[in-house]
Amino acid sequence: MRLIPCSQSDSVTYHLYLHGFSSAVNSMQEQRLIREIKQHGADNAYLVKWESGDITSTLTQSLLRDTDSIGKGKTGLALFMLKKVVDGVNHFHDVDANTQQVARALRKHLLEWLPITAKVNVIAHSLGTKVAAELISIWPDDRLQHWYCLGGALPIQSDWASLCDRLSGDIVNYWSKKDWVLLMKPSTEKSIGRCPIIVDTSLQARIHNQETGFSHSEYWQNLDLIPLKRHQQKELD
């Protein structure tokens, strides 16, 4: 895990961008994310590059390893392809299970590095929202401010009251009915990236839902439509 600077200034406000599952796995993807974060125009913006898996590499290696085991006929091919699907699902679950450890490592690094006067906004996409939630849940002081969830893979039944207590600002959830990736996520739990967070009246002033028309991969290229202050929100089609 490492923090990659995308923009720097003298501001006390910092912005941490967490990518999702199987993202920034090579230099081309990493540079694309950096360019898109720079265009967002946030002060002290950093891409948090974490071990998010590599689904393409995992499936390629699995295919090469097991090609000789393909059975005869359509049934044999179907069973082989089913096994590859299972390999992909298992890879996702392995990465998902590691988010808590990633959050602990990120917490340690940030506590050693951030100025004591810093105010930190967290912008997290996809499975990065789970890393963010784990980080917020173990954060010890009031430096974490706002949390922006983009197509979040976090379960809708999360402990929102506890997460709000750890933040000095608000939670803004950007979600979309067109996010088919989250619909296919190997879990029976609904994700906040596909529906609004429903909370009781005590949390309505702290948690805000913004519906978008984005697919799962379109959030990064549309960061300019994700304002970092709620009163600047734009219409998202």
Report on this model:
This protein has 237 residues and is of the alpha/beta class. Helix content is 37%, strand content 17%. The protein has seven helices and seven strands. The chain has helices spanning 27-40, 55-66, 73-97, 99-113, 128-137, 160-166, 180-183, and strands at 2-7, 13-18, 45-49, 119-125, 144-150, 171-175, 207-211. The protein has a seven-stranded mixed β-sheet with strand order 1-3-2-4-5-6-7, with helices on both faces. Helix 2 (55-66) runs antiparallel to helix 3 and helix 4 packs across helix 5 (128-137). Mean pLDDT is 89; it is low at 231-235.
Radius of gyration: 19 Å
Major sheet: arrangement of strands: 1-3-2-4-5-6-7
User: What is the 3D shape?
Assistant: globular
Give the rounded overall mean pLDDT: 89
Biggest sheet: strands, sense, closure? 7 strands, mixed
Strand percent estimate: 15-25%
Level of helix content? 25-40%
- Compute the number of strand runs: 7
At a glance:
With 237 residues, the protein is α/β, with parallel strands linked by helices. It is built from seven helices and seven strands; from the N terminus they run ββαβαααβαβαβαβ. The two termini are 34 Å apart.
Defining key terms:
237 residues, alpha/beta, 7-stranded mixed beta sheet, 37% helix, disordered C terminus
